[in-house]
Design brief:
The protein is an alpha+beta fold. It folds into 2 domains: about 10-75 and about 215-225, no CATH class; about 75-215, Pseudouridine synthase. The protein has 6 helices and 14 strands. The chain has helices spanning about 20-35, 60-65, 70, 115-125, 145-150, 190-200, and strands at about 10-15, 40-45, 55-60, 75-85, 85-90, 95-100, 125-130, 140, 145, 160-175, 175-185, 205-215, 220, 225. Strands 1, 2, 3, 4, 7, 10, 11, 12, 13 and 14 form a 10-stranded mixed sheet that branches. A hairpin with an 8-residue loop joins β5 and β6 (about 95-100).
Length: about 230
């Protein structure tokens, strides 16, 4: 269990536009002022993209930051809004959006994916599978962050990583927006999953909004807004 009573571990609801490192740096600065300890260590479990919101577990103090790896390995739960009928070079809403062509003819309503078709497609993603990390990610390859290479217009070969999708629930569907809840293993990129869903549906897709609601048994419902 996390010791949240003594602020050894903090459950933070990360806002949109902040990186996980922004959140850690902000909290570290505040804690150093409040405690007078200029060397206090602060770390986090599980990076969230800037466009994403939700649960971030933050460890305070040297001994607690050493325990952070155990929380990173816990399963995660996300709620994602997927935009169908378009793609993004970053797989999310921050990239260059391109309306898909040459897929289904979406000028006719009867050619939009049906809810039944979507539900069947989502089920095919449940289980263990290989997923290639996106170029726009904080993952390191040969000591370099992929997103830094991507910003230079470079794309390098990435080794696929085994992930597991434990469950996917369809929460809402109103073309072109699809809302799903995903329970998955650590290391899963929901942006990549969104793009893969769009590819399998034949219409293209990108992740428009993303919120992490759980890390293991810990819920964002018990988290604090970072400004507080």
């Amino acid at each position: 269990m996390l010791d949240t009573q003594n602020n050894n571990f903090l459950l933070i609801d990360k806002p949109v536009g902040w990186t996980s490192f922004d959140a850690v740096n902000f909290l570290r600065a505040r804690l150093r002022v409040e405690t007078g300890n200029k060397k206090i260590k602060v770390g986090h479990a599980g990076t969230l993209d800037p466009f994403a919101t939700g649960l971030l577990i933050v460890a305070v103090g040297r001994e607690n930051t050493k325990r952070i790896d155990g929380f990173q390995k816990l399963p995660k739960t996300y709620v994602a809004t997927i935009h169908l009928g378009a793609t993004s070079d970053t797989q999310d809403s921050t990239g260059v959006i391109i309306q898909t062509e040459g897929f289904l003819d979406f000028t006719r309503n009867d050619n939009e994916p049906t809810q039944e078709n979507i539900e069947l497609t989502l089920k095919t993603f449940i289980g263990k599978q290989l997923q290639t990390p996106p170029m726009y990610s904080a993952k390191k390859v040969d000591g370099q962050r992929l997103y830094k290479l991507a910003r230079q217009g470079k794309e390098i070969e990435r080794e696929p990583v085994e992930i597991e999708i434990y469950d996917i629930k369809l929460l809402n569907y109103n073309w072109p927006l699809l809302e799903i809840e995903v329970q998955c293993s650590t290391g899963t990129y929901i942006r990549t999953l969104a793009e893969d869903i769009g590819t399998k549906l034949g219409c293209g897709a990108y992740c428009e909004q993303l919120r992490r609601t759980k890390i293991g048994e810990y819920s964002v419902e018990n988290a604090t807004k970072i400004e507080k």
